[in-house]
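Review form for a predicted model. The reviewer records the input and the model, then writes brief findings.
Reviewer: anonymous (R2)
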Amino acid sequence: MIHDITPPITPSLAVWPGDTPPSREVLLDMRKGDNLTLSTLHATVHLGAHADGPNHYDTDAHAIDERDLEYYLGRCQVMRANVGRNRRIAMDMLEGDVTETRVLLATGTYPDPTTFNEDFAALEPELIDALHTKGVKLIGIDTPSVDLFTSKDLPAHHRFLVNDMAILEGIVLTDVPTGVYELIALPLKLVGFDASPVRAILRTID
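Model under review:
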């Protein structure tokens, strides 16, 4: 069974305030007599479900095309976090024990990808360090950022950098049961870019 944890990319998809929303420019259209249909996508690379490149939060770090794809492919664990809006997730808020090297956190604090709410939950820097000690190399979250909306110093992002871990943001976990899955969320090879949209899916493991 496959769970698609990617929000649909449409003009109604909310993006970070001030960023570029998705739009489609149709250059050729078979409905208008052209021999094929050809279109252009205009959008931020931090679009829906996306992987951050380390150069998003550190000028001397790797771009998204330089990241090892192994971060984004393999066994993962979906967990619920007992956290309120506009709060950071601490280790004791996780339901259950961490068993896998990739962890996807369902907070329920960003319920509608078409409506940007600023009071979504984020990650405690200490949580990232604790998960790192358990061998976790990727953390995903069902919000637009691993830091709070008002954060300027981005402490959670910087713990990912220190620990050489990967960030997956904007996933949709509403209907996904907790448990262990295979994650497939490969970023595009966008040379020099600070992020990439992904088609994130979970496959059940027999």
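Findings: DSSP finds two helices and 13 strands in the chain.
Further findings: Residues 55 and 61 are 5 Å apart (CA to CA).
Recommendation: see findings above.
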